Amino acid sequence: MPQTASLHLTNRLHIHIVLESESERERERGARMAEAVVLLDVWVSPFGQRCRIALAEKGVAYEYKEEDLANKSPLLLQANPVHKKIPVLIHDGKPVCESLVIVQYIDEVWSDGAPILPADPYARAQARFWGDFVDKKIYDCGIRLWKLKGEAHQEAKKEFIEILKVLEAELGDRKYFGGDAFGYVDIALVPFFAWFYTYETCGGFSVEAEAPKLVAWGKRCMERESVSQTLYDPLKVYEFVCSLKKKYGIE
Amino acid sequence: MARAAAEDVKVLGHLLSPFVIRVLIAFRLKRVEYELVDVRLAEPKSEILVKSNPVYKMIPVLLHRGKPICESSVIVQYIDEEWSDDGGSSSILPADPFDRAIARFWAVYIDDKLPYLIRALRWEKEAAKVTELVGQFRQVLGRLEQAFTECGKGKGFFGGDAVGYLDIALGSCLGWIMALEKGKSVKLLDAEELPPLAGWAERFLAEESVKGLVPDADEHLKVYEVATARTSATPAA
Protein backbone atom coordinates (compact mmCIF):
# COMPACT_ATOMS: atom_id res chain seq x y z
CA MET A 1 0.00 0.00 0.00
CA PRO A 2 1.43 3.42 -0.96
CA GLN A 3 2.29 5.62 1.99
CA THR A 4 0.97 9.15 1.87
CA ALA A 5 1.40 12.05 4.22
CA SER A 6 -1.74 14.04 4.74
CA LEU A 7 -2.75 17.10 6.67
CA HIS A 8 -6.03 16.77 8.55
CA LEU A 9 -7.86 19.70 10.04
CA THR A 10 -10.54 18.45 12.45
CA ASN A 11 -13.37 20.59 13.64
CA ARG A 12 -11.60 20.98 16.96
CA LEU A 13 -8.77 22.69 15.04
CA HIS A 14 -6.19 20.08 15.86
CA ILE A 15 -3.72 19.66 13.13
CA HIS A 16 -2.61 16.13 12.55
CA ILE A 17 0.12 15.15 10.27
CA VAL A 18 -0.51 11.54 9.68
CA LEU A 19 1.32 9.00 7.72
CA GLU A 20 -1.35 6.61 6.52
CA SER A 21 -1.77 3.74 4.21
CA GLU A 22 -4.60 3.98 1.65
CA SER A 23 -6.64 1.29 3.39
CA GLU A 24 -6.40 2.99 6.79
CA ARG A 25 -7.65 6.24 5.33
CA GLU A 26 -10.53 4.34 3.72
CA ARG A 27 -11.42 2.67 7.00
CA GLU A 28 -11.49 6.02 8.74
CA ARG A 29 -13.64 7.51 5.96
CA GLY A 30 -15.95 4.53 6.22
CA ALA A 31 -16.32 4.96 9.97
CA ARG A 32 -17.06 8.70 9.66
CA MET A 33 -19.54 8.04 6.87
CA ALA A 34 -21.30 5.32 8.85
CA GLU A 35 -22.01 7.74 11.69
CA ALA A 36 -23.31 10.28 9.21
CA VAL A 37 -25.76 7.90 7.50
CA VAL A 38 -28.57 6.21 9.40
CA LEU A 39 -31.40 4.14 7.93
CA LEU A 40 -34.59 3.66 9.95
CA ASP A 41 -36.19 0.53 8.56
CA VAL A 42 -37.99 -2.76 9.14
CA TRP A 43 -36.31 -5.99 8.01
CA VAL A 44 -39.08 -7.24 5.70
CA SER A 45 -40.02 -3.90 4.13
CA PRO A 46 -39.53 -3.91 0.36
CA PHE A 47 -39.41 -0.10 0.51
CA GLY A 48 -36.60 -0.17 3.06
CA GLN A 49 -34.81 -2.78 1.00
CA ARG A 50 -34.72 -0.43 -1.98
CA CYS A 51 -32.67 1.97 0.13
CA ARG A 52 -30.39 -0.79 1.44
CA ILE A 53 -29.71 -2.01 -2.10
CA ALA A 54 -28.98 1.53 -3.34
CA LEU A 55 -26.58 2.18 -0.44
CA ALA A 56 -24.84 -1.14 -1.07
CA GLU A 57 -24.53 -0.44 -4.80
CA LYS A 58 -22.80 2.83 -3.94
CA GLY A 59 -20.62 1.26 -1.27
CA VAL A 60 -21.94 3.63 1.40
CA ALA A 61 -21.42 2.58 5.02
CA TYR A 62 -24.40 3.30 7.23
CA GLU A 63 -26.00 2.48 10.55
CA TYR A 64 -29.12 0.33 10.26
CA LYS A 65 -31.81 0.85 12.93
CA GLU A 66 -34.61 -1.71 13.10
CA GLU A 67 -37.91 -0.08 14.05
CA ASP A 68 -40.77 -1.70 15.93
CA LEU A 69 -43.82 -0.32 14.13
CA ALA A 70 -46.02 -1.15 17.12
CA ASN A 71 -43.73 1.01 19.24
CA LYS A 72 -42.18 3.67 17.00
CA SER A 73 -39.00 5.30 18.23
CA PRO A 74 -38.91 9.03 19.09
CA LEU A 75 -36.29 9.33 16.36
CA LEU A 76 -38.68 7.98 13.72
CA LEU A 77 -41.52 10.21 14.89
CA GLN A 78 -39.21 13.20 14.76
CA ALA A 79 -37.65 12.27 11.41
CA ASN A 80 -40.92 11.55 9.61
CA PRO A 81 -43.61 13.53 11.45
CA VAL A 82 -45.92 13.61 8.41
CA HIS A 83 -46.26 9.85 7.83
CA LYS A 84 -44.40 8.24 10.76
CA LYS A 85 -43.32 5.53 8.35
CA ILE A 86 -40.12 3.76 7.38
CA PRO A 87 -37.82 3.91 5.55
CA VAL A 88 -36.18 7.16 6.58
CA LEU A 89 -32.60 7.99 5.61
CA ILE A 90 -30.94 10.38 8.01
CA HIS A 91 -27.83 11.96 6.48
CA ASP A 92 -25.81 14.30 8.70
CA GLY A 93 -28.88 14.64 10.88
CA LYS A 94 -31.22 15.57 8.02
CA PRO A 95 -34.07 13.14 7.25
CA VAL A 96 -35.14 12.04 3.77
CA CYS A 97 -38.44 10.12 3.44
CA GLU A 98 -40.21 8.09 0.72
CA SER A 99 -38.15 5.18 -0.62
CA LEU A 100 -37.83 6.29 -4.25
CA VAL A 101 -37.04 9.85 -3.15
CA ILE A 102 -34.33 8.33 -0.93
CA VAL A 103 -32.94 6.24 -3.81
CA GLN A 104 -32.67 9.34 -6.02
CA TYR A 105 -31.04 11.23 -3.17
CA ILE A 106 -28.48 8.46 -2.69
CA ASP A 107 -27.76 8.53 -6.44
CA GLU A 108 -27.24 12.32 -6.43
CA VAL A 109 -25.14 12.57 -3.26
CA TRP A 110 -22.86 9.60 -3.91
CA SER A 111 -22.50 10.48 -7.55
CA ASP A 112 -19.03 8.93 -7.85
CA GLY A 113 -20.48 5.43 -7.46
CA ALA A 114 -22.17 3.50 -10.29
CA PRO A 115 -25.15 5.58 -11.49
CA ILE A 116 -28.60 4.38 -10.48
CA LEU A 117 -30.48 6.64 -12.91
CA PRO A 118 -29.10 6.84 -16.45
CA ALA A 119 -27.60 10.05 -17.81
CA ASP A 120 -29.99 10.65 -20.72
CA PRO A 121 -33.10 12.70 -19.78
CA TYR A 122 -35.45 10.51 -21.83
CA ALA A 123 -34.08 7.29 -20.31
CA ARG A 124 -34.38 8.90 -16.86
CA ALA A 125 -38.01 9.76 -17.57
CA GLN A 126 -38.73 6.16 -18.58
CA ALA A 127 -37.03 4.91 -15.40
CA ARG A 128 -39.01 7.30 -13.20
CA PHE A 129 -42.26 6.32 -14.93
CA TRP A 130 -41.69 2.62 -14.29
CA GLY A 131 -40.48 3.16 -10.73
CA ASP A 132 -43.70 5.07 -10.13
CA PHE A 133 -45.71 2.25 -11.77
CA VAL A 134 -44.19 -0.31 -9.39
CA ASP A 135 -44.96 2.02 -6.49
CA LYS A 136 -48.58 2.54 -7.49
CA LYS A 137 -49.40 -1.07 -8.30
CA ILE A 138 -47.58 -3.96 -6.68
CA TYR A 139 -47.78 -3.49 -2.93
CA ASP A 140 -51.42 -2.44 -2.69
CA CYS A 141 -52.65 -5.11 -5.10
CA GLY A 142 -50.47 -7.66 -3.33
CA ILE A 143 -52.08 -6.86 0.02
CA ARG A 144 -55.51 -7.50 -1.47
CA LEU A 145 -54.30 -10.94 -2.56
CA TRP A 146 -53.75 -12.09 1.00
CA LYS A 147 -56.34 -9.96 2.80
CA LEU A 148 -59.45 -10.45 0.71
CA LYS A 149 -61.70 -13.38 -0.17
CA GLY A 150 -64.23 -14.33 -2.81
CA GLU A 151 -65.07 -11.90 -5.60
CA ALA A 152 -62.66 -9.22 -4.35
CA HIS A 153 -59.85 -11.77 -4.23
CA GLN A 154 -60.53 -12.86 -7.81
CA GLU A 155 -60.43 -9.20 -8.89
CA ALA A 156 -57.11 -8.71 -7.14
CA LYS A 157 -55.68 -11.86 -8.74
CA LYS A 158 -56.70 -10.71 -12.21
CA GLU A 159 -55.22 -7.29 -11.61
CA PHE A 160 -51.97 -8.65 -10.18
CA ILE A 161 -51.41 -10.99 -13.13
CA GLU A 162 -52.04 -8.03 -15.46
CA ILE A 163 -49.41 -6.01 -13.58
CA LEU A 164 -46.90 -8.86 -13.95
CA LYS A 165 -47.60 -9.09 -17.68
CA VAL A 166 -47.12 -5.35 -18.16
CA LEU A 167 -43.75 -5.55 -16.37
CA GLU A 168 -42.79 -8.65 -18.34
CA ALA A 169 -43.55 -6.84 -21.61
CA GLU A 170 -41.55 -3.80 -20.51
CA LEU A 171 -38.55 -5.92 -19.53
CA GLY A 172 -38.61 -7.88 -22.76
CA ASP A 173 -35.32 -9.58 -23.50
CA ARG A 174 -33.20 -7.07 -21.63
CA LYS A 175 -30.82 -8.08 -18.87
CA TYR A 176 -32.21 -5.42 -16.55
CA PHE A 177 -35.02 -2.87 -16.88
CA GLY A 178 -32.44 -0.21 -17.66
CA GLY A 179 -30.70 -2.37 -20.25
CA ASP A 180 -27.22 -3.68 -19.50
CA ALA A 181 -26.85 -1.79 -16.26
CA PHE A 182 -28.68 -2.57 -13.01
CA GLY A 183 -30.54 0.59 -12.04
CA TYR A 184 -33.50 2.49 -10.68
CA VAL A 185 -36.39 0.33 -11.88
CA ASP A 186 -34.58 -2.86 -10.91
CA ILE A 187 -34.03 -1.43 -7.42
CA ALA A 188 -37.69 -0.34 -7.21
CA LEU A 189 -38.99 -3.79 -8.15
CA VAL A 190 -36.49 -6.42 -6.99
CA PRO A 191 -37.46 -6.42 -3.27
CA PHE A 192 -40.85 -7.75 -4.41
CA PHE A 193 -39.08 -10.72 -5.98
CA ALA A 194 -38.91 -12.21 -2.48
CA TRP A 195 -42.68 -11.68 -2.22
CA PHE A 196 -43.53 -13.60 -5.41
CA TYR A 197 -43.89 -16.86 -3.48
CA THR A 198 -46.31 -15.21 -1.06
CA TYR A 199 -48.31 -13.59 -3.85
CA GLU A 200 -48.64 -16.77 -5.90
CA THR A 201 -49.48 -18.91 -2.88
CA CYS A 202 -52.12 -16.48 -1.58
CA GLY A 203 -53.28 -15.69 -5.09
CA GLY A 204 -53.50 -19.19 -6.49
CA PHE A 205 -51.36 -18.72 -9.59
CA SER A 206 -47.75 -19.19 -10.69
CA VAL A 207 -45.57 -16.13 -11.30
CA GLU A 208 -43.21 -18.24 -13.42
CA ALA A 209 -46.09 -19.32 -15.66
CA GLU A 210 -47.43 -15.78 -16.06
CA ALA A 211 -44.10 -13.92 -16.27
CA PRO A 212 -41.09 -16.22 -16.87
CA LYS A 213 -38.77 -13.40 -18.00
CA LEU A 214 -39.48 -11.53 -14.81
CA VAL A 215 -38.52 -14.57 -12.73
CA ALA A 216 -35.29 -14.97 -14.73
CA TRP A 217 -34.58 -11.26 -14.19
CA GLY A 218 -35.11 -11.68 -10.44
CA LYS A 219 -32.61 -14.54 -10.33
CA ARG A 220 -30.10 -12.43 -12.29
CA CYS A 221 -30.51 -9.60 -9.79
CA MET A 222 -29.94 -12.05 -6.93
CA GLU A 223 -26.46 -12.68 -8.37
CA ARG A 224 -25.61 -9.16 -7.25
CA GLU A 225 -24.35 -8.98 -3.69
CA SER A 226 -26.34 -5.82 -2.96
CA VAL A 227 -29.52 -7.77 -3.68
CA SER A 228 -28.69 -11.21 -2.25
CA GLN A 229 -27.45 -9.65 0.99
CA THR A 230 -30.62 -7.59 1.34
CA LEU A 231 -33.54 -9.80 0.33
CA TYR A 232 -34.84 -12.39 2.77
CA ASP A 233 -35.78 -15.98 1.95
CA PRO A 234 -39.23 -16.02 0.30
CA LEU A 235 -40.37 -18.54 2.93
CA LYS A 236 -39.50 -16.08 5.68
CA VAL A 237 -41.58 -13.42 3.92
CA TYR A 238 -44.47 -15.88 3.62
CA GLU A 239 -44.16 -16.73 7.32
CA PHE A 240 -44.32 -13.02 8.08
CA VAL A 241 -47.47 -12.53 5.99
CA CYS A 242 -49.06 -15.58 7.64
CA SER A 243 -48.42 -14.05 11.04
CA LEU A 244 -50.03 -10.81 9.83
CA LYS A 245 -53.06 -12.73 8.59
CA LYS A 246 -53.36 -14.36 12.01
CA LYS A 247 -53.08 -10.95 13.66
CA TYR A 248 -55.91 -9.58 11.48
CA GLY A 249 -57.98 -12.73 11.91
CA ILE A 250 -57.86 -13.66 8.24
CA GLU A 251 -58.21 -17.35 7.32
CA MET B 1 -30.71 28.00 -24.87
CA ALA B 2 -32.19 26.45 -28.00
CA ARG B 3 -35.88 27.09 -28.47
CA ALA B 4 -37.67 23.93 -29.54
CA ALA B 5 -40.06 24.39 -32.46
CA ALA B 6 -43.68 23.89 -31.44
CA GLU B 7 -44.12 20.96 -33.81
CA ASP B 8 -41.45 19.05 -31.89
CA VAL B 9 -43.33 19.44 -28.64
CA LYS B 10 -46.90 18.24 -28.24
CA VAL B 11 -48.83 18.00 -25.00
CA LEU B 12 -51.95 15.87 -24.96
CA GLY B 13 -54.52 17.32 -22.57
CA HIS B 14 -56.64 20.28 -21.54
CA LEU B 15 -56.51 23.11 -19.00
CA LEU B 16 -59.01 21.66 -16.55
CA SER B 17 -56.45 19.08 -15.47
CA PRO B 18 -53.96 20.30 -12.84
CA PHE B 19 -51.58 17.64 -14.11
CA VAL B 20 -51.62 19.13 -17.60
CA ILE B 21 -51.21 22.66 -16.22
CA ARG B 22 -48.01 21.55 -14.47
CA VAL B 23 -46.45 20.58 -17.77
CA LEU B 24 -47.41 23.85 -19.45
CA ILE B 25 -46.05 25.99 -16.61
CA ALA B 26 -42.77 24.07 -16.84
CA PHE B 27 -42.56 24.83 -20.58
CA ARG B 28 -43.35 28.51 -19.95
CA LEU B 29 -40.53 28.67 -17.39
CA LYS B 30 -38.13 27.23 -19.97
CA ARG B 31 -39.53 29.45 -22.74
CA VAL B 32 -40.21 26.40 -24.86
CA GLU B 33 -43.05 26.52 -27.36
CA TYR B 34 -45.54 23.66 -27.30
CA GLU B 35 -48.73 22.59 -29.00
CA LEU B 36 -51.60 21.63 -26.70
CA VAL B 37 -53.69 18.88 -28.27
CA ASP B 38 -57.08 18.04 -26.83
CA VAL B 39 -57.90 14.33 -26.81
CA ARG B 40 -60.99 12.28 -26.13
CA LEU B 41 -60.92 10.83 -22.62
CA ALA B 42 -64.25 9.04 -22.65
CA GLU B 43 -64.38 5.66 -24.40
CA PRO B 44 -63.44 5.24 -27.12
CA LYS B 45 -60.31 7.24 -26.19
CA SER B 46 -58.30 9.04 -28.85
CA GLU B 47 -55.96 6.73 -30.70
CA ILE B 48 -52.97 8.98 -30.11
CA LEU B 49 -53.62 8.82 -26.36
CA VAL B 50 -53.94 5.04 -26.25
CA LYS B 51 -50.85 4.62 -28.40
CA SER B 52 -48.66 7.04 -26.46
CA ASN B 53 -49.84 6.09 -22.96
CA PRO B 54 -50.90 2.45 -23.20
CA VAL B 55 -50.36 1.83 -19.47
CA TYR B 56 -52.75 4.46 -18.08
CA LYS B 57 -54.43 6.05 -21.15
CA MET B 58 -54.49 9.36 -19.23
CA ILE B 59 -53.42 12.94 -19.76
CA PRO B 60 -50.99 14.63 -19.74
CA VAL B 61 -48.70 12.99 -22.25
CA LEU B 62 -45.70 14.85 -23.61
CA LEU B 63 -44.64 13.88 -27.10
CA HIS B 64 -41.14 15.20 -27.73
CA ARG B 65 -39.91 14.43 -31.25
CA GLY B 66 -42.64 11.78 -31.29
CA LYS B 67 -41.41 10.02 -28.14
CA PRO B 68 -43.92 9.86 -25.28
CA ILE B 69 -43.33 10.78 -21.66
CA CYS B 70 -46.15 10.18 -19.15
CA GLU B 71 -47.02 11.15 -15.54
CA SER B 72 -46.89 14.87 -14.74
CA SER B 73 -44.09 14.68 -12.15
CA VAL B 74 -41.98 12.63 -14.56
CA ILE B 75 -42.69 15.06 -17.41
CA VAL B 76 -41.82 18.15 -15.35
CA GLN B 77 -38.50 16.62 -14.29
CA TYR B 78 -37.84 15.64 -17.91
CA ILE B 79 -38.48 19.22 -19.04
CA ASP B 80 -36.12 20.48 -16.35
CA GLU B 81 -33.36 18.11 -17.44
CA GLU B 82 -33.85 18.20 -21.22
CA TRP B 83 -33.92 22.02 -21.34
CA SER B 84 -31.45 22.39 -18.54
CA ASP B 85 -29.59 25.62 -18.09
CA ASP B 86 -27.25 23.96 -15.57
CA GLY B 87 -28.77 25.30 -12.37
CA GLY B 88 -29.49 28.71 -13.85
CA SER B 89 -32.50 30.92 -13.41
CA SER B 90 -34.96 28.61 -15.14
CA SER B 91 -34.15 25.55 -13.01
CA ILE B 92 -37.30 23.93 -11.76
CA LEU B 93 -35.85 21.56 -9.17
CA PRO B 94 -33.48 23.03 -6.56
CA ALA B 95 -29.75 22.53 -7.01
CA ASP B 96 -28.97 20.93 -3.65
CA PRO B 97 -29.76 17.18 -3.38
CA PHE B 98 -31.36 17.53 0.05
CA ASP B 99 -33.60 20.40 -1.12
CA ARG B 100 -34.52 18.28 -4.14
CA ALA B 101 -35.46 15.38 -1.87
CA ILE B 102 -37.67 17.67 0.23
CA ALA B 103 -39.36 19.07 -2.90
CA ARG B 104 -39.96 15.55 -4.23
CA PHE B 105 -41.29 14.40 -0.85
CA TRP B 106 -43.90 17.15 -0.69
CA ALA B 107 -44.85 16.66 -4.36
CA VAL B 108 -45.56 12.99 -3.56
CA TYR B 109 -47.62 14.14 -0.54
CA ILE B 110 -49.64 16.53 -2.71
CA ASP B 111 -50.37 13.81 -5.27
CA ASP B 112 -51.26 11.41 -2.48
CA LYS B 113 -53.82 13.73 -0.91
CA LEU B 114 -55.19 16.43 -3.21
CA PRO B 115 -56.51 14.57 -6.27
CA TYR B 116 -58.50 12.26 -3.99
CA LEU B 117 -59.86 15.15 -1.89
CA ILE B 118 -60.73 17.23 -4.97
CA ARG B 119 -62.57 14.33 -6.57
CA ALA B 120 -64.36 13.32 -3.37
CA LEU B 121 -65.46 16.86 -2.54
CA ARG B 122 -66.60 17.55 -6.07
CA TRP B 123 -69.11 14.71 -6.06
CA GLU B 124 -70.14 14.73 -2.37
CA LYS B 125 -73.65 15.98 -1.75
CA GLU B 126 -74.17 14.91 1.86
CA ALA B 127 -73.58 17.88 4.19
CA ALA B 128 -71.82 16.00 6.99
CA LYS B 129 -69.43 14.31 4.56
CA VAL B 130 -68.71 17.64 2.84
CA THR B 131 -67.78 19.11 6.22
CA GLU B 132 -65.51 16.16 6.93
CA LEU B 133 -63.77 16.44 3.57
CA VAL B 134 -63.35 20.20 4.00
CA GLY B 135 -61.73 19.50 7.38
CA GLN B 136 -59.29 17.04 5.81
CA PHE B 137 -58.56 19.46 2.97
CA ARG B 138 -57.77 22.30 5.37
CA GLN B 139 -55.50 20.02 7.38
CA VAL B 140 -53.55 19.07 4.25
CA LEU B 141 -53.20 22.72 3.26
CA GLY B 142 -52.06 23.49 6.80
CA ARG B 143 -49.25 20.95 6.42
CA LEU B 144 -48.35 22.41 3.05
CA GLU B 145 -48.08 25.84 4.64
CA GLN B 146 -45.49 24.37 7.03
CA ALA B 147 -43.68 22.97 3.99
CA PHE B 148 -43.82 26.44 2.44
CA THR B 149 -42.10 27.92 5.49
CA GLU B 150 -39.39 25.21 5.44
CA CYS B 151 -38.73 25.19 1.70
CA GLY B 152 -39.28 28.84 0.86
CA LYS B 153 -36.89 30.00 3.61
CA GLY B 154 -38.60 33.36 3.86
CA LYS B 155 -38.82 33.94 0.12
CA GLY B 156 -41.95 34.23 -2.01
CA PHE B 157 -42.20 30.72 -3.41
CA PHE B 158 -41.61 27.12 -2.33
CA GLY B 159 -38.70 27.27 -4.75
CA GLY B 160 -37.31 30.43 -3.17
CA ASP B 161 -37.14 33.53 -5.34
CA ALA B 162 -38.70 31.82 -8.32
CA VAL B 163 -41.47 29.35 -9.07
CA GLY B 164 -40.14 25.82 -8.73
CA TYR B 165 -41.16 22.18 -8.67
CA LEU B 166 -43.31 22.33 -5.57
CA ASP B 167 -44.97 25.62 -6.55
CA ILE B 168 -45.99 23.94 -9.79
CA ALA B 169 -47.22 20.79 -8.03
CA LEU B 170 -49.51 22.69 -5.66
CA GLY B 171 -50.25 25.80 -7.70
CA SER B 172 -51.67 23.73 -10.54
CA CYS B 173 -54.42 22.60 -8.12
CA LEU B 174 -55.50 26.16 -7.26
CA GLY B 175 -58.09 26.28 -10.06
CA TRP B 176 -59.92 23.34 -8.59
CA ILE B 177 -59.51 24.62 -5.03
CA MET B 178 -61.13 27.93 -5.98
CA ALA B 179 -63.86 26.20 -8.00
CA LEU B 180 -64.77 23.96 -5.07
CA GLU B 181 -64.79 26.93 -2.69
CA LYS B 182 -67.25 28.71 -4.94
CA GLY B 183 -69.33 25.71 -5.92
CA LYS B 184 -69.67 24.26 -2.44
CA SER B 185 -69.64 27.57 -0.56
CA VAL B 186 -66.77 26.45 1.63
CA LYS B 187 -63.37 27.82 2.59
CA LEU B 188 -60.42 25.58 1.77
CA LEU B 189 -57.42 27.90 1.46
CA ASP B 190 -58.53 30.26 4.21
CA ALA B 191 -56.58 33.54 4.11
CA GLU B 192 -57.40 34.14 7.78
CA GLU B 193 -56.14 30.73 8.90
CA LEU B 194 -53.23 30.39 6.45
CA PRO B 195 -52.08 33.89 5.50
CA PRO B 196 -48.61 32.86 4.23
CA LEU B 197 -50.07 30.20 1.93
CA ALA B 198 -52.84 32.53 0.74
CA GLY B 199 -50.17 35.12 -0.05
CA TRP B 200 -48.19 32.52 -1.96
CA ALA B 201 -51.30 31.54 -3.99
CA GLU B 202 -51.87 35.14 -5.03
CA ARG B 203 -48.22 35.57 -6.04
CA PHE B 204 -48.24 32.28 -7.94
CA LEU B 205 -51.33 33.12 -9.98
CA ALA B 206 -49.86 36.53 -10.86
CA GLU B 207 -46.64 35.05 -12.27
CA GLU B 208 -45.95 35.49 -16.00
CA SER B 209 -45.33 31.78 -16.40
CA VAL B 210 -48.70 30.95 -14.87
CA LYS B 211 -51.05 33.67 -16.15
CA GLY B 212 -53.81 32.29 -18.31
CA LEU B 213 -53.01 28.67 -17.54
CA VAL B 214 -55.18 28.23 -14.46
CA PRO B 215 -58.86 28.55 -15.44
CA ASP B 216 -60.98 30.54 -13.00
CA ALA B 217 -63.68 28.99 -10.83
CA ASP B 218 -66.49 29.68 -13.32
CA GLU B 219 -64.66 27.84 -16.09
CA HIS B 220 -64.54 24.75 -13.91
CA LEU B 221 -68.11 25.08 -12.77
CA LYS B 222 -69.38 25.51 -16.33
CA VAL B 223 -68.05 22.15 -17.40
CA TYR B 224 -68.41 20.06 -14.30
CA GLU B 225 -71.40 19.55 -12.10
CA VAL B 226 -70.67 20.95 -8.69
CA ALA B 227 -73.45 20.81 -6.12
CA THR B 228 -74.41 24.45 -5.61
CA ALA B 229 -77.07 23.82 -2.99
CA ARG B 230 -75.93 25.37 0.24
CA THR B 231 -75.15 22.79 2.88
CA SER B 232 -78.04 22.47 5.28
CA ALA B 233 -79.32 20.27 8.04
CA THR B 234 -81.33 18.04 5.70
CA PRO B 235 -80.85 14.36 6.55
CA ALA B 236 -78.73 12.23 4.22
CA ALA B 237 -80.57 10.54 1.35
UniProtKB/TrEMBL annotation, chain A:
One of its GO terms (biological process) is glutathione metabolic process. Residues 120-240 form the GST C-terminal domain. PROSITE patterns: GST_CTER, GST_NTER. It catalyses: RX + glutathione = an S-substituted glutathione + a halide anion + H(+). This is Probable glutathione S-transferase GSTU1. Belongs to the GST superfamily. It comes from the Eukaryota. Keywords: Transferase. It comes from Zingiber officinale. Residues 35-114 form the GST N-terminal domain. The lineage of its organism: Eukaryota, Viridiplantae, Streptophyta, Embryophyta, Tracheophyta. One of its GO terms (molecular function) is glutathione transferase activity. Conjugation of reduced glutathione to a wide number of exogenous and endogenous hydrophobic electrophiles. The keyword Disulfide bond does not apply. PANTHER family: GLUTATHIONE S-TRANSFERASE U19 (PTHR11260:SF781), GLUTATHIONE S-TRANSFERASE, GST, SUPERFAMILY, GST DOMAIN CONTAINING (PTHR11260). Its EC number is 2.5.1.18. Signal peptide: none annotated. One of its GO terms (cellular component) is cytoplasm.
Automatic annotation (TrEMBL), chain B:
Residues 7-87 form the GST N-terminal domain. GO terms for cellular component: cytosol. It catalyses: RX + glutathione = an S-substituted glutathione + a halide anion + H(+). Residues 96-236 form the GST C-terminal domain. The keyword Nucleotide-binding does not apply. It is found in: Cytoplasm, Cytosol. InterPro entries: Glutathione-S-Trfase_C-like (IPR010987), Glutathione_S-Trfase (IPR040079), Glutathione_S-Trfase_N (IPR004045), GST_C_Tau (IPR045074), Omega/Tau-like (IPR045073). It is an enzyme of class 2 (transferase). Is involved in the conjugation of reduced glutathione to a wide number of exogenous and endogenous hydrophobic electrophiles. PANTHER family: GLUTATHIONE S-TRANSFERASE U26, GLUTATHIONE S-TRANSFERASE, GST, SUPERFAMILY, GST DOMAIN CONTAINING. This is Glutathione S-transferase. It comes from Zingiber officinale (Ginger).
